[in-house]
Specification:
The complex is a heterodimer. By secondary structure, chain A is mainly alpha-helical. Chain A is 71% helix and 1% strand. Chain A has a domain at 23-133 and 153-236. Chain B has two domains: 2-337, no CATH class; 341-380, no CATH class. Classes of the chains: A mainly alpha, B mainly alpha.
Chain lengths: 307, 386
């Protein structure tokens, strides 16, 4: 047994807790877009990770452009790049919904297969455009470094930034879903499509906008991830299983469930990673989720019966 | 009886065509390197056959079939590895008689779960039994709780990730990311010699055809009919008093056992197994093979596997850039335009007569798409059965 002094233990506790919170915001960011696309609309979009990668590549492009043409704007470009990432991913989402998804709403398993095909195409498109090597944008200085309240506690600023962004985005999604007319239409369509159509909601348009919005949020998530890691053509596929598990574990059609499940999974994983080595922490958490889902298939917060 | 095993005269003709292709045309026209590749593809076809039963017939999509392929493969590889690590050929190790990767990881003795794999009969049994038992436990837990459709797909996909990460993370007892390599002999018989590669290829073909005939028999009987009914109207079958869950579990176990056989044959022909054959990507690629060949057709699944893999190796040799575009595009096209895959196109062509079909082919494809689009836009309700 290694001997730690009480203050060292306290610092480890704080930093480990922060690592868990940081992972929580990453998982929640990934899952927010999918909570709309899969949780609300029931579309299994396996290309969701590629929309995140698109957002990350947009930030990389912006950073390169700014560095080459307007280095003076370097401290400010990042916020604009996030907005562009949202628009780019949302536009691609709109295109995909129009050309592919709308034919497959009645065949959920086929949506899953077709979007997997789409993810292969997008991955290769990234590889052909940006190369197979992982890229990192040059981040503005204010995102670098860390914050040191005491001698032994070390909190990275980019982690704090991702958390803040997660908070803002979650709030925005909540406002949209529960406090806006478009969100009301969306929830109505999810609950009863035929009746929503009968009272004059254009359900086809709702589907298209919802899908596009989910993809846009994925783009923002990808943009945020550039602050904590590099981006490669297959980065997206690394996140996809975790993302789906977060949404399924939380219970579909429940924003609160998604938040709770991202929190639980993140804390579980960072604790397991502290005690078990390497990938086994993740294996333990995934196994735990699968076992819990076998016992409680409707997820943590169920609001409707699964077909 | 004839009809049930071979599917009538046209079924027998199609089966004979496949047998001629596998037993005569390919061995005579390809060199041993290429033939060995075909043999490797045919081991994936076992998984695709299982998917035809589970997904095509039963409507249950598993994205974790790589788990069962891998379990079968690992069971076989453990036996072969133990045989290759006898105390004499491993005497330079600090602990002779255990597999080399264990020695590198400072293990001093064989882990207990490896010990039974010293016996060939046990290992051969394990190739089928281990995947089947895992499938039984997972299937029973999920189907009893009415987990189906996309949720089943996502959870099985998570299983594939869990197993591949788990193997990767326990290098000392599993060989880690490199897998189990350097396999030489099966009961003293050198599996790397050219003659053994020919023999193993023919054994694979024979087992594959036998599996097809067996499944044909099974699917043309009560099991197949009930599975089809469950796929189309699960509630109605349940209300008619059938134990729906039991049928689904059986189909899942069957698919897993067949996939395990495929995995074992893979190891024998290719000489290694690694977590890269277990994870998410290979699992979903095997679904692609079945989908391209036609998810309802046993023979279609075999052709789909052969065609996609041949395409993959041709493309990646000449235009590696284009391969993923082609594969992704093909897959989207098959799913959207030809949900019944190549077998569906073949049937359509035979019913309409070839010459007429060739003229009308482009037209029907377009008409199908347009018809689909118009039915959907006319009634865009999406609460379909999953």
């Amino acid at each position: 047994m290694l001997a730690y002094s009480a203050s060292e233990l306290w610092s480890i506790f704080i930093m480990q807790g922060f690592a868990g919170l940081s992972l929580f915001s990453v998982l929640l960011l990934m899952a927010l877009g999918l909570a709309i696309i899969f949780g609300q609309m029931g579309v299994v979009n396996l290309a969701h990770g590629e929309f995140m990668a698109l957002g990350a590549y947009v930030v990389y492009l912006c950073s390169t452009l700014v560095q080459n043409h307007a280095p003076a704007l370097q401290p400010y470009y990042f916020l604009v790049a996030i907005a562009i990432a949202f628009v780019a991913a949302a536009l691609l989402g709109l295109l995909v919904e129009w050309s592919l998804i709308r034919y497959l709403y009645r065949r959920p398993l086929d949506t899953l297969l077709a979007t997997w095909g789409l993810s292969l195409v997008l991955q290769q498109a990234f590889r052909s455009t940006f190369g197979a090597r992982e890229v990192t944008p040059t981040l503005p200085d204010w995102l670098m470094g860390s914050f040191k309240p005491t001698e032994s506690i070390d909190i990275p600023i980019n982690g704090v930034f991702v958390m803040a962004l997660t908070l803002v985005l979650t709030g925005a999604v909540w406002l949209f879903l529960y406090r806006s007319r478009a969100g009301l239409h969306m929830r109505a369509t999810v609950q009863n499509r035929a009746m929503s159509g009968a009272i004059g909601i254009n359900t086809g348009l709702v589907d298209r906008l919802a899908f596009s919005l989910g993809c846009g949020i994925a783009g923002v998530a990808g943009a945020a991830f550039t602050t904590i890691g590099s981006t490669g053509p297959d980065s997206g596929s690394r996140y996809i299983v975790d993302t789906f598990l977060v949404v399924v574990f939380g219970g579909t059609a429940s924003l609160l469930g998604t938040i709770a499940s991202a929190f639980g999974i993140a804390q579980g994983q960072s604790v397991c990673e502290f005690f078990l080595q390497g990938t086994m922490g993740k294996v333990a958490v995934l196994l735990g989720i699968v076992v819990i889902l076998m016992i409680r298939p409707q997820g943590l917060f169920a609001s409707k019966v699964r077909s | 009886m004839f009809k049930r095993f071979f599917g009538g005269r046209s079924g027998l003709t199609n089966l004979a065509l496949l047998a001629i292709l596998l037993f005569a045309v390919l061995p005579l026209s390809l060199d041993i390197f290429r033939l060995n590749l075909v043999g490797k593809y045919l081991t994936y076809a076992f998984v695709a056959l299982g998917l035809v039963v589970l997904w095509g017939k039963g409507g249950v999509l598993s994205l974790g079939q790589g788990v069962f392929f891998g379990l079968g493969g690992y069971c076989m590889a453990m036996f072969l590895k133990l045989e290759a690590s006898d105390p004499i050929s491993t005497k330079i190790q600090s602990t002779p008689g255990i597999p080399d990767f264990m020695d590198w990881n400072q293990l001093k003795a064989l882990p207990a779960f490896w010990v039974p794999f010293k016996s060939l009969p046990f290992s051969l049994l394990a190739v089928v039994v281990v995947p089947s038992v895992v499938a039984f436990i997972v299937g029973l837990a999920m189907f009893k709780r009415r987990v189906g459709g996309v949720y089943f797909a996502i959870i099985t996909q998570a299983l594939a990730l869990i197993l591949s990460l788990g193997i990767d993370g326990n290098q000392g007892v599993t060989g880690g990311r490199n897998g189990i390599t350097d396999l030489r002999t099966l009961w003293g018989w050198d599996i790397r010699a050219q003659s053994s590669q020919y023999i193993l290829y023919f054994v694979t073909c024979f087992l594959l055809l036998a599996t097809i005939v067996g499944l044909q028999w099974l699917l043309s009987g009560r099991m197949g009919k009930t599975l089809g009914a469950i796929r189309d109207r699960e509630d109605r079958v349940r209300f008619s008093g059938y134990d729906v869950d039991l049928f689904k579990v059986s189909a899942f176990v069957l698919a897993a056992g067949i996939a395990g056989v495929g995995g074992a044959l893979f190891v024998l022909q290719v000489g290694f197994i690694s977590p890269s054959l277990v994870g998410i990507v290979p699992s979903i690629e095997m679904v692609i093979f079945a989908a391209v060949g036609g998810r309802h057709s046993l023979l279609g699944a075999v052709y789909g596997t052969l065609i996609v893999n041949t395409g993959k190796s041709l493309f990646s040799e000449t235009f590696p850039q284009l391969w993923l575009f082609a594969m992704g595009g093909l897959f989207i096209a098959v799913v959207v335009l030809f949900p019944n895959g190549l077998a569906g196109i073949w049937d359509l062509a035979r019913r309409q007569g070839w010459s007429k079909f060739v003229r009308a082919k482009a037209g029907t494809a377009a008409a199908d798409a347009v018809g689909l689009a118009s039915t959907l836009s006319a009634n865009p309700a999406k609460e379909g059965k999953s």
